[in-house]
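Homework help board

Subject: predicted structure for assignment chain

Our instructor gave us this sequence and asked us to write out the predicted structure in token form, then describe one feature. I got the tokens but I'm not sure how to describe them. Can anyone check?
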Amino acid sequence: MSIINTCFRYGRTVLFLLLFGYSCFYLGTLSVHSGRTNVTIVREDNEQGDPTKSVTDFWAQFFVSESPKFKAVLEVKEPVKGPVLPETESEESHTSNVPCLNNEEFVKENEKRLNWIQQECPNTVRTKLSEIKEMFYFPKSDLGWCPVYKAASSNVFAHFCSDYFDEETCQNKHIKMKDYEGGFRSLDDFREKDPPPESEQRFLVVRNPFTRLLSAYRNKVELLSHTTAYTEFFMDTLMHYRPIRWITNFDKRDSAFKAINYAQSMTEGRNQRKPEPDNPYLYPPYPTFKEIVYAVIAGRRDNHVIPASQRCGPCGSTHYDYLLKAETFDCDIKNMFELTGNTRLLTNTERWATNQTPVLNQTMFYSYYSTLTSDQLDDLLNLYQDDCLLFQYPCQKHVDNIRKFKSLNPDFKHEYRNTWSGRVGDWDTIS
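My token output:
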């Protein structure tokens, strides 16, 4: 009897251990199934080679290995989709693919552009269209030019440089562009005389005002290419237009200065201690595109954002012989040099890439402009309406497409990224 009791007692223990072991094994297999990448196992000797007719290799599933004559085909994940773009063609990409006009075709096109300006001048809304801020005159070429900055202005300087400076100087844009002796802007020889020479021919280079404004932002603000010149403006913009979402006692100017100084230090490669994480001006540590647009609409005017029609006065007493466009700059200036006997200037192919940010594409254009309010878009249309009219840019269509982009991508959010050349720092993406 004692033997039977002993067997019964130990038998229950053995049965419990067997059941417990089986349970552990079963749970372990479930864990393997749930934790593994989805795998389709295809026999190598499948004549059809059709993954839909695959068989399961439990060896590979359970032991993350491959048994003979089997191979694992990992499930391919769909790529992350970008925002949906309005069905429209990018103007700048379109014009860049158009073959250059020959001299005869360019003369006709240039005449159409100039005649259109004279036809539409009575329909402009600004009253100070004849105020020319500055006019350069290049005596060796007998050409006069009213610069519209952020409209291929650096490349215009580059073409004329070889007539007046040595090769080493022409390869250093910082020497030529600064306001000191030895630069274009400081030499009286390049100031147009009053009255101008009778033989002088004037030209003007214009650009789509919406892409020009964005280019100015990406170069001067995001890239921080003129740090000392814009520090006070950046600080004022942050303090006036960046909303503070909590009540706290802090020095606005000091916090804004620390944020801007931190961004500048990253641009210049200097080590700078990161400001306190609760600094409301740190993300991003410079004005956003929306904040800059607020300032421009409120009256901020500098050479990079002022409308070209106000800066160079094509509707006033100033007569232009050539109207070039930044979108077709290389072709236009080539034709102008050939028609004016200045083909030697075409040999200066040194291009001054003043904007080291990633090349602007259609998605980026809509991304930046999607941050603006509907009222801001209307205000920009009002600000640049004369440029859009006189130089035949479809600004209303741009605004309509920006609004369409926002409706197609209601959850889209622009990100400010640390992706431009030369910057160092401890942040990669700042929303």
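Reply (TA_rk): Your tokens look well-formed. For the description, you could write something like this. Confidence is low (pLDDT under 50) at residues 30-76, 90-94, 419-431. That's the kind of observation they're looking for.
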